[in-house]
Structures are given as structure tokens and as C-alpha cells.
Amino acid sequence: MFDKNRVLLGIAPIAWTNDDMPELGGENTFEQCVSEMALAGFTGSEVGNKYPKDTKALKKALDLRGICIASAWFSSFLTTKPFEETAAPFLKHRDFLYEMGAKVIVVAEQGHSIQGMIDTPVFDRKPHFTAAEWESLARGLEKLGKLAQEKDMNIVYHHHMGTGVQTATEIDKLMEMTDPKLVYLLFDTGHLVFSGENPQQVLAKYAKRIKHVHLKDIRQDILVKVTSEKMSFLQAVKAGVFTVPGDGMIDYEPLFAELANNNYEGWFVVEAEQDPALANPLEYAIKAREYIREKTNL
Predict the structure, then answer these.
(1) How do the domains of the chain map onto residue ranges?
(2) CA-CA distance, 256 to 113, in Å (whole number)?
(3) Helices (H), ranges, 207-272
(4) Any signal peptide, and if so, which residues (predicted)?
């Protein structure tokens, strides 16, 4: 189905230690995290807050375990701050990832975002951009795309719950407003289903523009609870709305088939943030790895 030399498997450290809620997995070390990633059979990782900032130290620790860096999250504020206030930290982030050998940079607009607000209902208070903000976002992302390409890298935009680019309609608008050679898409199964969208429709429309994939599943019973109890995004995570592929409501077979038919190249990154005290990270990493092997032969 997939070429093993062109589709690589990674997992995010967010299952071990949560950057937005440090109390989740606070006891888990960087060394335990990357060792268990390797033990579960993954060869890539995104970057968490416990990872060494020094590239030589990080490379040494990862090389010992056969792990490399796939990408890392970057928060842009293109709708609320001058471009320069996003560009400066972006360049530092770009150069770090370049030294680590990554080819894509995950970008998510955090202007007006409520994803980190523990008491703000994720559905009721979702932000919406003005026409001027959409323009600032689109032009700013294109500039970041050009900066990335100076290092032969690309940006991939992460649609995300609690932000101004969450729904299929908003993804359409962003894709229409931006140059397809400068702004690519990160396809996140869990965030689309959480938002009430059909991931297969989004994938079919933008398959050629997708350069990074996050695999996370959704527990349907928890999703119902999130809506009825007006939970925030972080409350939903704590309640267990996300899980690994094959453990929730998402049918991955047609998604894998669509990606394969479009000759997808890049990373599949399992990114299913849960409370590690309730969902043992190694156990769930192994579960995800076995499911991906079963469905894709990777």
C-alpha cells in the first residue's frame, strides 16, 4: 500500500508529557519517552518541552534509540500581532528543525485561540476571523512558507479545535486564499472528527497538498459528553476524547487507501494526547503501532 522508504512512522511525546497541561505526565522523563517510542517500533518523534534545546545533545539521545525528528509545533500570531513578532521566533524554530533534519514545520494560528483556556467551552466560544484577519493570516503564512523554503523546508498548516481554522469551511477558505506552492496542509483525523467534519471529504479535496499527517482517534462517548457538558478543549483531553488509531470511532481504512492512491510521502505521526496515568503511553504506542502495521503493512 505504501512505500516504506517514503512513508515514515512517528509518534508525538504528548502522550507521555503534555505541554499545555504539565501536570499530565509531569513524572515522565524525556529519556523514558523516547526510549518507549523506540521500544514500540517508531522511528520518528515531534518535539516536546522536555526535549533538549541543544541540537547536539538531542541528536545524540535520539541516535542511540534510532529516532529522528519529524517536525515540531509552531504558534503563529498573524491575526493579532505584527508579522515581525511571528517571523523572529519562526526563524529560530526553522533553524532548529533544519539542524535536526526535519523537512516540514507545523504551523497553527493562535491569534484568538481558546484551545489553552481550561474553562472556555470549545464549541460555544470558538473564534472567527474578520476579513482583515483572514488576509493577514493568508499573506503571513505565505511569507513563512518562503522563509521555510530558504532551507528547502515547507510549512504545513495545522487546523485545530478552538482556533479560527477548525472546520472544513475554514480549511477551504485558507487553502483558497494561499499559494499552494507555499502553504501546505497538515491532515489531522482527530481534530476533523472532533469538529464534526468528514475527514475523507477533506482528504479527497486536498490530498495533493497534504505533506504531514497526524493520526489520532476519537472516543465517541466522550465526544458526546464534551458537547453536552460544554467542556473546554483541555477538559476534553483530560476526559479522554482522544485515543490512538484503531481505539475509537474513526474508520481508517478508506483514509489510508486515499493517501496511498495519491502517493503520499512524509510522516504518519500518532498524536493522541491522553492522561498518561489513565492511558499508559507505552501500551497505547504499541497498540497504535500494531494497528498501523495491520492496516498499511508499514
Answers:
(1) 7-296
(2) 30
(3) 220-228, 233-239, 253-261
(4) none
How far separated are the first and last CA of the chain, in Å rounded?
Answer: 8
Largest separation between any pair of C-alpha atoms in the chain: 49
Grid cell digits, residue 167: 472546520
Q: Which grid cell is 157?
A: 498548516
Pairing of strands 154-158, 7-11: unpaired
For residue 198, how many other CB atoms are within 10 A of its CB?
11
pTM score of the predicted model: 0.98
| In the block, residue with C-alpha cell 535520539 | 62
Instruction: Using the predicted structure, report yes or no on whether residue 1 has a pLDDT greater than 90.
Output: no
Residue 186 contacts residue 106 (beta carbons within 8 Å): yes
What pLDDT does residue 298 have? 97
**What backbone torsions phi and psi does residue 142 show, to the nearest 5 degrees?**
-65, -40
- Dist. CA 208–CA 181, nearest whole Å: 11
Rounded to whole angstroms, the Cα distance separating 217 from 73 reads: 19
Report the chain's C-alpha Rg in angstroms. Answer: 18
* Amino acid in position 48: G
Q: What single-letter amino acid sits at 41?
A: G
**115, 18 contact by CB (below 8 A):** no
Q: Per-residue pLDDT tens for 93-113?
A: 999 999 999 999 999 999 999
CATH architecture of 7-296: Alpha-Beta Barrel (3.20)
- Angle (CA) 4-64-58 rounded to 5° is 100
* Per-residue buried b or exposed e for 233-271, using 16+ beta carbons within 10 Å of the residue's own CB: bbbbbbbbbbbbbbbbebebeebbebbeeeebebbbbbb
